[in-house]
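Q: Joint fold for the lines below.
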Amino acid sequence: MIHYLRALWSRLRGLFGDRRADRELDEEIETHLRLLTERYLRQGMTEVDAASVARRQFGNITLLQEASREMRGIKFIETVIQDLRYGAQMLIKTPGFTLTVILTLAIGIGANTAIFSVVNAILLRPLPYRDADRLLVVSESWPARSLSNIGVDPDTFADWQERNHVFADMAAFANGEEALTEDGEPEKVASQSVTPNLFALLGTGAALGRSFTPDDIKSGQPRVVLISHSLWHRRFNGDPSVIGRKLKVTLAVPEEAIIVGVMPAGFQWGVTIGKPVDLWTPFMGLHALTKGHSVWQGRYLTAVARLKPGVSIAQAQAEMTAIAAWVANHYPSYHAELSATVTPLRERLYGDLRPALAMLFGAVAFVLLIACANVANLLLARAAMRSREIALRSALGASRLRIMRQLLTESLLLTVLGASAGLLLANWGADLIVSLSPPYLFNLESVRISAPALIFTLAVSLVTSFFIGLAPAYESSRLNLNEFLKESGRGVADSRRRRRLRGLFVIGEIALALALLVGAGLLVNSFAHLQVVDPGFNPQNLLTMEVSRNWQHSERQRIGFFKQSVERLQALPGVSAAGATSALPLTGSAGGVRFFIEGRPKPSPGQDMLTRVIVTDANYFRTMQIPLRHGRLYTEQEATESRGLVLINEAMARRYFPNEDPIGKQVTIQSRPPNRNPPVEIIGMVGDVKLGALAEPAEPTVYWPHSELALPGMTLVMRTSGDPLNMSAAAREAIHAIDPKQPITETSTMESWLAKSMIRAHFNMVLLTVFAVVALILASIGIYGVMAYAVAQRTQEIGIRMALGAQARDVLRIVIREGMTLALAGIVIGLLVAFSLTRWMETLLFGVRPTDPLTFTVIAAALALVALIACWIPARRATKVDPLQALRHD
Amino acid sequence: MVLKVLDALGPQHGYGIARRIKQVSEQVLQLNEGTVYTSLLRLQQRKWISAEWGASENNRKAKYYSITKSGRKQLARETENWERIAGVIGRLLKLEGRE
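A: Joint structure:
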């Protein structure tokens, strides 16, 4: 062992002290030869003979010098350095080629790195909680209607907590809002009501002060609250003495709570995308109510649990299914047909993003493959031009391996340069992706070119350089020296195999580009379909403004406040109509409320009829331009004073009153505790409005006048004559004229809500289209390059043909036929590839089928056209060949 | 082989070693004499032989190689190894001859 180290050391030294050792060896050889010659002289040979015999006996001096040089230095490093130096020289000599290759690789590698950074941030990086892989979200589910993630009511949660043996701990939380009216500008913040054990379960403590303890929910204890790091800085200037201070929070009921702690910077918890939470309060509802599993409690909690060590997810699921069955058995009126599901936290957070990310990742992989094929083609063409040099090198004794290595080193050099440029591109691309992405989808800071991304780039580069270098290197090393020399250097003919290899690359490129284009085409098509979906109202020039009163005001006061607000807004110049609603369209929708129709048998448990309930004032429908289909709307007076009236939408009429006139029918809507829901009369039917996603069908909905359910928080809408945002200041003033302490949140326009609702579709479409266009450009450069090269190679042949009477048209036809054969082969293969891949995109599409024949046809035709142009340019050049010059050439 | 020569004859230059090997092997091994230098270099790198400059018979500068202590050890090891293998092969051949 030790002698290997010694050898290595002396070799390392040899790497530097080369010259002296060379000279010494020369002297030794000289002496040796001299001694031999003298010996033969003594045997009576002539000086010349003796010298030549001596040399013969000694053997190949150059070989010996080479061998000993190799042994002295570390051969590998030495050749690599030599290859690199030589490669760099070659690249500098052909800047056009080098730049093209580097740019192509930069696009391929850059796109991959950018997408990988996003994928890494979302799918691979550990979630910021202790042992996040052991965290599960537990929710009620309704297998019969394939509904999951329903949430859970407090009583059922308590049962889960008590009865399970698979979780180390189980916590629950509910998202809410609180208004901060003291200490500065009135502000509404997102809040979370959490069981005190939540933070311990997540493994996070307070950065300042303490987090919650079980004592915090005991009755008689003062109310406590935790604030976010960002709220601490925003409202309290990061003052540490804030701990123990009283904070007045006002939404449900104005209360004072003691700030007991500040959470760490960046800490967020939740399972849905929403505003960052600024306030945490202990959840008091658990054990507070008498257990009854009552109907009106609501499934507003989300449960999160930590698996006990050694318990698998499947075991946890089995246990929760059993517990849910027990609950369903004991409280059938509320739980019949319901079960419980457990979902790993990451799956719950990002599961629905996976198809889109998988698609994008696949797309960038395709782009990289195309880039590789392109570069390999360029290198192949260059290798053909360098045949002479390579033949010379092998004639001088360079081994095949040595030549291959030289070429691979050059491709590595190119890739490294390309990857560096690609990293710059990726950095910029990741920013672009983040700016296009839906808000709060992921932390902006979290998508950075991180260490894993760098490692990924490195790996991709190595594989890439291998791919692009292998074919040319292999081809060149196969070069038959004899044949080559026989060709006597007359316009080195391209070997047929090499031409075929290049043809295959082009076919592959076109096939991949076609698959990408089809995918992008389908998404563009979906997006177009989405944009012509009728949301059920006119979204133009609508300003929206969320205003929340609190429960402390009496019903009359609440209704009066909004009536007054609407009147003031209507009076503003530039506002043609104003109204109020409890839920804006397209902003997602609250869960359903059960109801039954008077005069019909009550549905059995588990067969509930559900409807969404929206509270509006009388002006809402006119402001939004939601059409009345049948019957009448409620009047201004009815909307503020009377009860017992309701409007329904068309979807409700279709589902629950088929072949019947719903007007005049009585329904009981169970939005209040049992026995406090008198039947109400349907007086009219309005058009369907999309409450959630545009892509989903409208849900059965009832509209109630504000007087029926005097909610404290409403969204005001007003139709303006100009840009709605210009009116926002005047509108705020109008509200503050009624109550200067009234927080106003989410001032926006209906058009921006509309854009937000389409942001995911937009995100997917834009990115895939960008990649597809890049692929198209690369592929057409590829086919152009191959055809241009083929024409250049065949200049003589074309010249002869033309001298023998071929017309320009014939030449054009020959070249184009050759190119289009490749293109069409690529298109056919690409169609097959696309056909088998697009079905994975089904969940991302809307209004088009994954095998939409129109998209497939149009894209294939468009690609064929592009290919035709790419062939036509070199073909035209071929027709310009001057026969005389072509023959004289070379 | 080179080590054995140096062990037996003391310091030698490349020419001498090459001639000696030729003599000993009774012309069975017809190697190019140049190859001896590659071996010398390898042995030197493993510190089994050392070299110093001196004058040759014809008064030229020549490098004289001599065996080192670790070279002797290696020689002993290899000799033993070789003898063992040769012994085994020898016995094997005898065995086959009897069949």
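Q: Anything notable?
A: The beta strands of chain B are 12-13, 49-55, 61-67. DSSP finds four helices and three strands in chain B.
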